[in-house]
Specification:
By secondary structure, this protein is an alpha/beta fold. A seven-stranded parallel β-sheet has the order 3-2-1-4-5-6-7, sandwiched between helices. It has ten helices and seven strands. The radius of gyration is 17 Å and the shape is globular. The structure holds nicotinamide-adenine-dinucleotide. Residues 18, 20-24, 42-44, 47, 68-70, 95-98, 119, 146, 148, 191, 193-194, 196-199 line the site of nicotinamide-adenine-dinucleotide.
């Protein structure tokens, strides 16, 4: 990291939901390496504490909040405590998520459907609702929503997950317009395959190697590569980008005009 890059986000406070592990942890560290103090959030306490430790090891401040993303009151309280500890949140990365249902329509009961929508859609919506007033007061902010390539393309065994991720794209576009007067930008990333625990659970690196045959670059991404894009969208370098979806998929989906 060059000196200028390491101070790009100095003085900013970032909240990354679901940053106890996986991509969320990588986002937290990428933001810290660029100078941001980080609110680490997750439902998994040990994992979140470890991310907090890693953030502090970069020299930045970390504050850890354990809360269920599906509980708006708990998230409101977490955002308020975090702001009191580190300062108003300037950067929000809505990352917390659970895997796709991996079944056709017959296999999805109301509980699975409700859970997928509660974590991704309700979680993103109400965490943003909690963080935005502070950004408005400050007159600026950056929101990066984590969608998915499947939110753009659909999947034969993931209609609930894919539609939840598509809903996140709807929020992204709407909020880009709604929050623009306050200089709050809202963008989404749509990752393809990324090597994280839920993906490895499907069959380890052997599964990844096979699935990556469908990717023009012939591999899945590592979480850190996705985090570079998140850090860019959260930085002043992306001040003129809002309402956009950054497709991070190794060329697996290439859409024309
Ligand atoms: N890995 C991929 O290939 C891939 C591709 C596209 C999109 N995504 C999305 O990226 C995001 C991160 O996924 P990942 O692969 O790093 O998975 P992960 O399971 O490693 O990370 C998700 C994190 O969210 C947390 N979380 C889940 N439910 C929560 C809840 N109710 N309250 C608070 N925290 C909760 C988990 O504890 C975990 O730390 C998710 O939104 C996922 O849908 C992943």
């Amino acid at each position: 990291m060059s000196v200028s890059q390491s101070t790009l986000l100095s003085g900013r406070v970032a909240l990354v939901t679901g940053s106890g592990r996986g991509m969320g942890r990588a986002h937290a560290l990428a933001l810290a390496e660029r100078g941001a103090d980080v609110v680490v959030h997750d439902i998994l306490a040990d994992e979140a504490e470890e991310t907090g430790r890693l953030v502090r090891a970069t020299g930045r401040r970390a504050h850890v909040e354990i809360a269920d993303i599906t509980d708006p009151a708990a998230m409101r309280a977490a955002v308020a405590r975090a702001a009191a500890a580190l300062g108003t949140i300037d950067i929000l990365v809505n990352n917390a998520g659970i895997p796709a249902e991996r079944t056709g329509i017959e296999g999805v009961d109301e509980a699975i459907f409700a859970r997928i929508f509660a974590v991704h859609v309700k979680g993103t919506f109400f965490t943003t609702q909690a963080a935005v007033p502070g950004m408005k007061e400050k007159g600026g902010g950056k929101i990066v929503n984590v969608s998915s390539m499947w939110g753009q393309t659909g999947h034969s065994h993931g209609a609930a997950y894919c539609s939840a991720k598509a809903a996140i794209l709807g929020m992204t576009k709407s909020w880009a317009k709604e929050f623009a007067p306050w200089k709050i930008t809202v963008n989404a990333i749509a990752p393809g395959g990324v090597v994280t625990e839920p993906v490895l659970k499907k069959g380890g690196m052997e599964y990844v190697r096979k699935a990556a045959e469908a990717v023009p670059l012939k591999r899945y991404a590592m979480p850190e590569e996705i985090a570079h894009a998140v850090a860019f969208l959260a930085s002043p370098e992306a001040d003129f980008i809002t309402g956009q979806v950054m497709a991070l998929n190794g060329g697996q989906v290439i859409v024309g005009f």
